[in-house]
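User: These chains co-purify. Model them together.
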Amino acid sequence: MKLFGRTEDHTLQDLADEDLIAMAQRGDIEAFEILYDRHKGPAYSLARRITGTDGNADDVVQETFVSLWRSIERYDPRRASVRTWLMRIVHRRAIDQLRSQMVHAKRRADGEGLIDDLTAKEPAPEALTLANEQSVEVREALGDLPEDQRKVIELSYFSGFSQTEIAEMTGQPLGTVKGRMRLGLEKMRAHLELEEAQA
Amino acid sequence: MDNLNDNMRDDAAAFVLGAMSELEREAFRVKMMRDCELGRYVESLERVGDALLTSSPSVAVPDSIRASILAEAQRDLDAREILESPRAAPARQPSGYGARAFRPLALGLAIVVVALGAFAIGGGFESSDQSNAPLTASFNAPTAPTMNGEVKAVGDGAAVNVSGMDTALDGDVYQLWVQHDKTVYAAPVFTVSSDGSGHAFINRELAPGDVVMITREPAGGSKEPTGKPLAAAQV
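Assistant: Joint model of the two components:
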């Protein structure tokens, strides 16, 4: 069996992300294709959630993967997994796009509605994979937070609002907003650590 | 993490969630570099942030995105291949002198160039005006060995002159493309005369590192390249 051969289709599919990245760094487009297929779902879902439209999500995902291909040599496995690296890029690009568009202003006007996005959508069939089971756990951890803590996390992380903007929008003192962010993240951390210990 | 007060923890949470202004972020980064405990606390919250990134409910991904991304990646590969490939047939070589005969001369020239480069980097050329030199580049076309061409920056654009091009276009045209940073821009189409020569002007200022490519496209040109680049030049 050839290690990187094309004679057996499963060979490339079985490789870890880091191995595929190393191949893509040498210009192997098939390795890059598999990376895309492996991560497109979470990447698109995150882009769609942040930008709010299919068209904007398309742009963000395309830009992300093309830029990843063009700067793939910058990947450093010591800093983050491939999935985390990729998702951070999607997040940054989606937030940048959101901030640069009027959509942001509109969402500010009906900020309450977007908080419910989290539970409003029906998961697609692919939600049954292990990765999605993990994402369900994270959603549960977020859903278990008191509403005021969940709201500030949502508004900052998925809607791109600054702490000052959130304070203005919610009519709460800045210190209260910051405290809620911290308490929410700490509770989620404890929840996820507990899940990890039980797994 | 006992030495961290609530204010520092609050700032850490805002930092992780991207809720700080640029100025606040920079100030916080400085604090974090000075305080290992704060850095570890931020790392622990970043794990939550990373988990949140994968928490979105799944939505179906349009198939068109895949094709578009892979076409772009393939174009990059094609252009890279063209730029890195040696020319199939050198344009002209003095008869009686093979490449081997030029090796000592080439080595000598290389040493001189390196020495001059080091001299220049060390500030040896006080009045060097290299930055004012016009950007030029020659096309590489491994699949079209008779083709020669050059792109030369002129004012706010660039002039392209080619020769030895295939004249049997069957109604198609040649089109120029400029890859700048991470984006490919469509540039003018052109045809060639019966001797295979052609000229075009790119209404776009070129920057060092830009790649100018030529593809064959249907009459009128295309919004995106539809085929492999025939030639490429990196300025």
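Residues 142 and 150 of chain A are 6 Å apart (CA to CA).
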